[in-house]
Amino acid sequence: MDITIKDIENNLETLPKEFLNEVNDFIDFLKYKYFKEKQYEVPEWQKDEVRKRVRYSQNHPESFVSESEMDDYLNDLESGD
């Protein structure tokens, strides 16, 4: 027997209200389980771009600044210095 949305709705209507959160959590779990592979699939061009940036950072470590240096730089921009 195929279960329809209406069958599920009827079941939900007879369920005590305190269980609705659990049902909703279970639905979220099922969606996550089903969609996780598709949802987090990274296109090849993005992987290539990350590899390129990692190689650049390894070959040019001087081009990176610390968080505090960037914060100082941004503060200077905001203040007009």
Explain this structure.
- By secondary structure, this protein is mostly helical.
- Helix content is 73%, strand content 0%.
- It has four helices and no strands.
- It has helices at residues 5-14, 20-39, 44-59, 67-79.
Please mark out the parts with pLDDT under 50 across 5 or more consecutive residues, or reply none: none
Helix and strand succession? HHHH
Measured between the Cα atoms of the first and last residue, the distance is 73 Å
Coarse shape: elongated
Report strand %: under 5%
Mean of pLDDT: 89
Cα Rg: 25 Å
Q: List the total number of helices.
A: 4
- Proportion in helices: over 70%
User: Structural class given helices, strands, pairing?
Assistant: mainly alpha
Main sheet?
A: none
- Could you give the count of β-strands? 0
Give a quick precis of the structure.
The protein is an all-alpha fold and 81 residues long.
Keywords:
81 residues, 4 helices
Topology:
Layout: H1 5-14, H2 20-39, H3 44-59, H4 67-79
